[in-house]
Specification:
Helix 7 crosses helix 8. This protein has 2 domains: 239 residues, 3-Layer(aba) Sandwich (QueA-like); 79 residues, QueA-like (Thrombin, subunit H, Beta Barrel), CATH 2.40.10. The chain is globular and about 65 Å long. The strands form 3 sheets. The chain has a 9-stranded mixed sheet with strand order 2-1-17-16-14-3-12-13-15. The chain is α/β, with parallel strands linked by helices.
Length: 348
């Protein structure tokens, strides 16, 4: 048995980042040397000095959709609809707030070009099945009427226009490509095209996977014995080009640097399912916690994670729980910024 309380810590509220750093690459970065139990304080732009041609870099190129919708019932009651997963025939799994104000058959009007028909509650933790009512391309409509779904711990007093302008740009990676996530792969938010070019010029080969991040990334583990926790399923894809890169690099003895926990779970899931890395489309429900033995990933760039979260358990499996908690104590003492818009660490 491994207890949830073992992965708890206290974070001063003022260290929860509410906005991104002035420039992506200016975020603070804690460098953890796992073998030597070394902790160094750097900035993200120093990643160029820490990687060389003995490393390959794998990033998640998923793109966040404007999944948070605000609309009204015909009574005038304001309703929030949070898109989670697309089904066929214009149906979606969603969260609805306040859910007590909706029932089967009601229509929530989002705009003149989009409404949502509530079909039925789902048995899975407060989710609903709805039908989207629209003509044309839904993604184009969402970009006009939707909002970027920021995590619940980001609370700011700004106008909608200011929010949209900031978050549409900064809550996406610069290499985001395939729309389908309701949360950003936040470790990648620190990269710029200039840093990617500098790494490439040093001989660091770069590849991409796609894992569409779901709402489960924000959901806390609720069972005290963490072995009872079940991960939400998230779809992913590995291309032939990326599979070839990883397999060749591994044969050459190079180290794989994963950017973000979503990349880790994609690669480790593929190896678990197929015994190797190959081109595939599949889904991941892999829960990584100590003492997991990593088959593919050697190093990790990752943000600082919530207490009692599966993400904190994953990094504890890679670097060792005691060392991770020592690093988090150091980060709090040095006033690092935490969570999605916060600073990061490089586990080396």
């Amino acid at each position: 048995m491994m207890l949830l309380s073992e992965f708890d810590y206290t974070l001063p509220e003022e260290l929860i980042a509410q906005t991104p750093a002035d420039k992506r690459e200016n975020s603070c970065m804690m460098h953890l040397g796992v073998n030597a139990k070394l902790i160094e304080h750097k900035h993200f732009y120093d990643i160029v000095d820490l990687l060389d041609d003995n490393n390959i870099l794998i990033l998640n190129n998923t793109k966040v959709i404007p999944a948070r919708l605000y609309g009204y019932k015909d009574t005038g009651a304001r309703i929030e609809v949070f898109l989670l997963k697309e089904h066929e025939n214009k149906k979606w799994e969603v969260l609805i707030k306040p859910s007590k104000r909706v029932k089967e058959g009601i229509i929530v009007k989002i705009s003149d070009e989009l409404s949502v028909e509530v079909l039925q509650p789902l048995p899975d933790d407060g989710k609903w099945l709805v039908r989207m009512i629209y003509e044309g391309n839904l993604l184009e409509i969402l970009h006009r009427v939707g909002n970027i779904p920021l995590p619940p711990y980001i609370e700011r007093k700004m106008t909608n226009d200011e929010l949209k302008k900031l978050d549409f740009e900064r809550y996406q990676t610069v290499y985001a490509k395939d729309e389908g996530s309701v949360a950003a792969p936040t470790a990648g938010l620190h990269f710029t095209q200039d840093i990617l070019k500098k790494l490439s010029d040093k001989g660091v080969e770069i590849g991409f996977v796609t894992l569409n991040v779901g709402i489960g990334t924000f959901r806390p583990v609720k069972c005290e014995n963490i072995l009872d926790h079940k991960m939400d399923s998230e779809s992913f894809e590995i291309t032939q080009k990326t599979a070839d890169l990883i397999n060749r690099a591994k044969k050459e003895g190079k180290k794989l640097v994963a950017v973000g926990t979503t990349t880790v779970r994609t690669l480790e899931t593929a190896h678990q399912q197929f015994g190797c890395i190959k081109a595939c489309r599949s889904s991941s429900e892999l829960f990584i916690y100590p003492p997991y033995e990593f088959k593919v990933v050697d190093k990790l760039i990752t943000n600082f994670h919530l207490p009692k979260s599966t993400l904190l358990m994953l990094v504890s499996a890679l670097a060792g729980k005691d060392f991770i908690f020592k690093a988090y104590e150091e980060a709090i003492k040095n006033k690092y910024r935490f969570y999605s818009y916060g600073d990061c660490m490089f586990i080396d």
